[in-house]
Write a structure and sequence with these properties.
single chain, 143 residues, alpha/beta, 5-stranded mixed beta sheet, 20% strand
C-alpha cells in the first residue's frame, strides 16, 4: 500500500485527484499508476483502470489471475467491475469513499448468481488515515 500511496502523491503533484494503485502478484509489483483523468482527458482513467491496462499490456494477457490490486481509495463500481473482468483475486483499499465507493454494494451480489464465474475478494487495508489525509489536503487546497 505504501507504493500506492506514493503514486497518489504523484497524482496530486500533477493536479489529479490523489489516488494511487499497484497490482501485485507473488510479491512483485506488475504495474503502478495513479489517476490520470485530467492528463488523458479520460473519465475512465482511474488509478485502478490505469494499473489494469498497464499490467495487461506488460504481460500480454487480458486476464490477471492471482493478482492483488492495492488502491488508496475505495473503488467505484466501474473499477470493481473491471477487476472482475480481469480476474483479479483481491482488491485492498486504504480509505473509504462515502460518495462513490462501491464495495458494500458489490458485496451484496449473491455468490451463487448465475453467470458470475469470478468472485473478487475485497478488504480494507493499511494506510487509510494517510490516504484520507492526502485527499482532504488536496481538496482543501482547491477550495
Amino acid at each position: 500500500m505504501a507504493a500506492a500511496l506514493e503514486e497518489a502523491r504523484r497524482a496530486a503533484a500533477r493536479g489529479e485527484v490523489p489516488v494511487g494503485a499497484v497490482l501485485v502478484r507473488e510479491g512483485e509489483i506488475l504495474a503502478r499508476g495513479h489517476n490520470r483523468n485530467l492528463l488523458d482527458l479520460d473519465p475512465t482513467a482511474h488509478a485502478e483502470i490505469v494499473v489494469l491496462r498497464e499490467a495487461a499490456r506488460r504481460l500480454g494477457e487480458r486476464r490477471l489471475p492471482g493478482t492483488v490490486l492495492y488502491v488508496t481509495l475505495e473503488p467505484c463500481l466501474m473499477c470493481l467491475g473491471a477487476m472482475v473482468h480481469a480476474r483479479v483475486a483481491e482488491a485492498v483499499f486504504a480509505a473509504e469513499d462515502p460518495q462513490v465507493g462501491a464495495t458494500r454494494l458489490f458485496a451484496e451480489i449473491p455468490v451463487g448468481r448465475p453467470g458470475l464465474n469470478h468472485r473478487l475478494g475485497i478488504r480494507r487495508g493499511p494506510l487509510g488515515d494517510e490516504s484520507a489525509a492526502l485527499l482532504r489536503e488536496f481538496f482543501r487546497a482547491r477550495r
